[in-house]
Amino acid sequence: MPLYDFACDGGHRFERFVPLAQFGDAQTCACGAGAWRLVSAPMVVSDCIAPRMGADGRLHDSLASYRHSLTPEGNKKGERYFELGHNEELPSKTYDYDQKQRRDDIRAAMADVRNGNVPQPVFLED
Ligand SMILES: [Zn+2]
User: Fold this and answer.
1) Which of 9, 77, 81, 86 has the most CB atoms around it within 10 Å of its CB?
2) Cβ(16)–Cβ(34) under 8 Å?
3) Any bridge partners for residue 5, and if so which?
4) How far, in Å, from the CA of 34 to the mean position of ligand 1?
């Protein structure tokens, strides 16, 4: 039975369940005044999302199918993926390293490249 909003001449507003069969019947407010139906927007819960890539490699425009792709049953790898909320960040891997040592390693590697001191590519034969 649908719930409708009404207003009366006395300025009251109220909600009332009205069977569809009585849709056209005149309604009366608790104060005794005649009431008229107000037009109100129904609450719509939408499943539509801006297309986004799911864990199954497909574009999804439905939240339900997108979320299904994040479950082990929903993607070929059989893995569980997680959505990020607005205030969440990916857990960052923290690498413990000495920054000076790291810079020295990078400089040494760049010097190796400059001097042609790099490993030769390995070509695999069929
Ligand atoms: Zn009233």
Assistant:
1) 81
2) no
3) 15, 38
4) 8
The token pair that represents 98 in the structure block:
């000495």
Q: For ligand 1, a single-atom ion, which residues have Cβ within 5 Å?
A: 8, 10, 12, 29, 31, 33
* Beta carbons of 105 and 112 less than 8 angstroms apart: no
Q: Express each pLDDT in 33-73 by its tens digit.
A: 999 999 877 777 788 888 989 999 999 999 999 999 999 99
CB-count exposure of residue 55 (10 Å: 0-12, 13-18, 19+): buried
Give the SS3 label for residue 12.
coil
Q: Is the separation of the CB atoms in 66 and 56 below 8 Å?
A: no
Q: DSSP assignment, residue 8? A: E
Asked whether 63 and 51 are in contact (CB, 8 A), the reply is no
